[in-house]
Amino acid sequence: MSTTDIEQELTTEQQAVVDAVNAAAAATTAEMSDQEKYGVQFDHGLAWVNFPVGDGGLGVSTSLREFAADQMTKAGLQPPPRGSNTIGFGMAAPTIVAYGNEEQRAVLRKIYTLETIFCQLFSEPGAGSDLAAVATRAVRNEDGYLINGQKVWTSSAHNADMAILVARTDTEVPKHQGLSYFLLDMHAPGVEVRGLRQITGEAEFNEVFLTDVQIPAGYMLGEPGQGWKISNTTLNNERVAIGGGNPREGGMIAQVAKTWRDNPEYRDPLLHDELVRLWVEVEASRMMSERLSQKLAAGQPGPEGSGAKLAFATNNQLLSGLEIALSGVDGLRYDTYEMRRPVEHSMTGRIPGYRYLRAKGNSIEGGTSEIIRNIIAERVLGLPGEHRVDKDVAFKDLPK
């Protein structure tokens, strides 16, 4: 089949992607910095091809993201490492596109060029996994909103320039109704970040203290009281981002399969059965994520992404344990507990011991597995919800 035949088979949307890739490649020079190269890709709609034109996209189907990535690779265009701005790419950007005004959407380009790193200020010490119970206050004043409160388990806050923040603007209504959603400058006076040292030895997570932090009114996303609705857009995107994205035999299963092939002396029939069983589980999860990705073509992700996130956490913990067993005595060694504050996070980095310990956090970050199971039961399977005595009670009247 000739190249001309292949080009004739392209759909209109695929052709738009190919044209954008060719234009971006022609506008990119070897003398450019990485940041300048990423800017060219954004300006040609290759940052998120499913986003609207002008917001780093081409307005084409979400299902063409993989096609666009392949075309960029063939053209020698290297996209930015998403691990350097995970929250920005996977959670902030789609939420800002869905609810942001023109001025707020201007940050999308800086997210893609890695000029603006984002973190997520949702979890709080007193709210646990119940996002609706956050107590951080945002009080209206003549300059905008004054923020006071404390957040916890904030990934990459020590590197962040901006944050997506959920805070309470109304205590006179039930807890789900009094929340609002903000963009926050992490360099503003009153923002204090303290590292939380983890079982791995590093401090990837943080506590964030907010003391009389002034936010302009224009930093609110959506309208006052829409925080719960907008947060669910962020969380649904987060769970799809965490639960998907790996190619066949990619991610943690790739590490374990390599260990199996490299260490024949530790193989036995039981370990082989477990490896095959988990390989099938991971492949089934990958295909489920692919179907979710295709559903994204019709709009924002729904609660079904929770299944992918739950499977990711469960499989990672089982796989990392199996890798320890397949590594023999080497699996019991650890490289270093030195305190580190990583700029870029990789689940598959370092050694089997690191992966085993780090995987423990997979069932907490992005929503605990217990909360995820509740979402699947109530919002996917339609089972009766938990009995909630605080559903119709004003937040100020709830026992603290």
Question: Share of helix among residues?
Answer: 40-55%
Oligomer: single chain
Biggest sheet layout:
4 strands, mixed
Strand coverage percent: 5-15%
How many extended strands? Answer: 8
Q: Report how far the terminal alpha carbons are from each other.
A: 70 Å
Instruction: Report the structural category.
Output: alpha+beta
SSE string, helices as H and strands as E: HHHHHHHEEEEEEEEHHHHHH
Mean pLDDT across every amino acid position: 89
Low-confidence stretches: 1-6
Rg of Cα set: 22 Å
Form type: globular
Order of strands side by side in the largest beta sheet? 1-4-5-8
Q: Counting H and I runs of at least 4 residues, what is the number of helices?
A: 13
Structure report:
- The strands form 2 sheets. Strands 1-4-5-8 form a 4-stranded mixed beta sheet. The protein has a 4-stranded antiparallel beta sheet with strand order 2-3-7-6, with no helix packed on it.
- It is globular.
- The N terminus is likely disordered.
- Helix 2 runs parallel beside helix 4, helix 11 runs antiparallel to helix 12 and helix 11 runs antiparallel to helix 13.
- The protein is α+β, with helices and mostly antiparallel strands and 400 residues long.
- A hairpin with a 2-residue loop joins strand 2 and strand 3.
- It contains 13 helices and 8 strands.
- Helices cover 41% and strands 12% of the residues.
Fold blueprint:
Elements: H1 3-9, H2 12-27, H3 34-43, H4 65-74, H5 86-99, H6 102-105, H7 107-112, E1 118-121, E2 137-141, E3 144-151, E4 162-168, E5 179-185, E6 191-196, E7 205-215, E8 220-221, H8 227-243, H9 252-262, H10 269-295, H11 305-326, H12 352-358, H13 369-380
Parallel strand pairs: 1-4
Antiparallel strand pairs: 2-3, 3-7, 4-5, 5-8, 6-7
Helix pairs in contact: 2-4, 5-8, 8-11, 9-11, 10-11, 11-12, 11-13
